[in-house]
């Protein structure tokens, strides 16, 4: 009876720390976002470094909060190959919102601040749109097949626009995050898909292909992260309450040139069904390896 109450108290304290920490760092981020509107390239680069520093410090305090309010045992393999001075594409299996906190925890100050590709329209979201732009989250523009059918002259313009938007990363290391399954794993989704994988949903090639097509010449390495929760997949509340006893993470690093050299990302990728099929096959093979790795990770009994 007492233990659940203690967990709820810890959760309330942890959530409070998260809230005030977010408020503390959001304020300078929004202020410097306004300064970044000044269209002088060296000035914008300078402000970008300050903003990334604010975001990194926000995560650092969140990580300290986790250490103070939980006794989770972390087993992480593969971090030694990483550096904050490289350019990365990061992929991972997706089971819970806790995955994002796990990725931020293990990668903070080891690789550049994690960013996601966002739809171009999201730049107009009040306050957040400005913050995402200021933190250099890349915005993508994708035209539908029906739009291109009516406007064939626009074919390839979306990728061209995205590539130009990513030019700033030539001078600044970046980590682009992509959850390849597109959504969090659940047994219902797994069964509805008829997924051939035991622990994962089917991988979707489109997101990774878009990033590699737009930034393949800028990115250096693919970081493939496999996350396992030995005690069962936790909710965010379970995590902040300190109920998660063990988290295991495996990291595999592959040079991007080894992927791009296979010819998946030439100019006709999105219009050539054969090229897309070959990349999907390659991704399925990677996902099969990840499923086997999860089998191994789940078979190893974590310390209690």
Work out the strand percent: 5-15%
Radius of gyration: 20 Å
Structural class given helices, strands, pairing? Answer: alpha/beta
Overall strand count: 8
Q: Mind describing the biggest β-sheet? A: 6 strands, mixed
Strand order of the largest sheet: 1-8-7-2-6-3
Estimate percent helicity. Answer: 40-55%
Give your account of this protein's structure:
By secondary structure, the chain is α/β, with parallel strands linked by helices. Helix content is 49%, strand content 13%. It has helices at 2-35, 41-69, 98-107, 128-134, 145-150, 157-165, 187-193, 205-215, 236-240, 256-260, 273-299; strands at residues 73-77, 88-92, 114-116, 118-119, 139-140, 175-179, 221-228, 246-255. A six-stranded mixed sheet has the order 1-8-7-2-6-3, sandwiched between helices. The protein has a two-stranded parallel ribbon with strand order 4-5. β4 (118-119), α4 and β5 (139-140) form a beta-alpha-beta unit. α1 crosses α4 (128-134) and α6 (157-165) packs across α8 (205-215). The longest helix is centred in the first third of the chain and has 34 residues, at 2-35. The chain is globular and about 65 Å long. The model has no long low-confidence stretch (mean pLDDT 87).
Which short descriptors sum up this protein?
single chain; 304 residues; alpha/beta; two-stranded parallel sheet; 11 helices; globular
Question: In short, what is this structure?
Answer:
This protein has eleven helices and eight strands.
Task: Explain the layout of strands and helices.
Layout: H1 2-35, H2 41-69, E1 73-77, E2 88-92, H3 98-107, E3 114-116, E4 118-119, H4 128-134, E5 139-140, H5 145-150, H6 157-165, E6 175-179, H7 187-193, H8 205-215, E7 221-228, H9 236-240, E8 246-255, H10 256-260, H11 273-299
Parallel strand pairs: 1-8, 2-6, 2-7, 3-6, 4-5
Antiparallel strand pairs: 7-8
């Amino acid at each position: 009876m007492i233990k659940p109450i203690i967990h709820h108290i810890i959760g309330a304290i942890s959530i409070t720390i998260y809230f005030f920490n977010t408020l503390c760092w959001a304020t300078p981020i929004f202020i410097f976002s306004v300064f970044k509107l000044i269209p002088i390239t060296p000035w914008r680069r300078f402000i970008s470094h300050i903003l990334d520093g604010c975001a990194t410090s926000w995560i650092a305090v969140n990580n300290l909060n986790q250490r103070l309010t939980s006794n989770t045992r972390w087993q992480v393999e593969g971090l030694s190959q990483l550096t904050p001075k490289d350019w990365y594409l990061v992929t991972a299996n997706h089971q819970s919102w806790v995955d994002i906190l796990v990725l931020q925890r293990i990668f903070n100050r080891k690789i550049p601040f994690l960013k996601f590709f966002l739809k171009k329209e999201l730049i107009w979201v009040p306050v957040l749109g400005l913050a995402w732009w200021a933190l250099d989250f890349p915005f993508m523009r994708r035209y539908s097949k029906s739009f291109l059918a009516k406007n064939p002259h626009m074919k390839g313009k979306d990728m061209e626009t995205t590539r130009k938007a990513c030019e700033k990363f030539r001078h600044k290391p970046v980590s682009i995050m992509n959850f390849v399954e597109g959504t969090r794993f659940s047994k219902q989704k797994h069964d509805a898909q008829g997924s051939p994988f035991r622990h994962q949903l089917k991988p979707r090639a489109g997101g990774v292909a878009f990033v590699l097509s737009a930034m393949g010449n800028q990115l250096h390495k693919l970081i493939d992260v496999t996350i396992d929760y030995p005690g069962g997949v936790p909710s965010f509340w379970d995590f902040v309450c300190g109920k998660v006893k063990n988290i295991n993470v495996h990291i595999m690093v592959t040079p991007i040139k080894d992927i791009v050299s296979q010819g998946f990302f030439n100019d006709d990728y999105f219009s050539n069904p054969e090229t897309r099929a070959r990349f999907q096959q390659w991704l399925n093979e990677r996902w099969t390896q990840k499923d086997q790795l999860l089998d191994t990770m789940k078979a190893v009994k974590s310390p209690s």
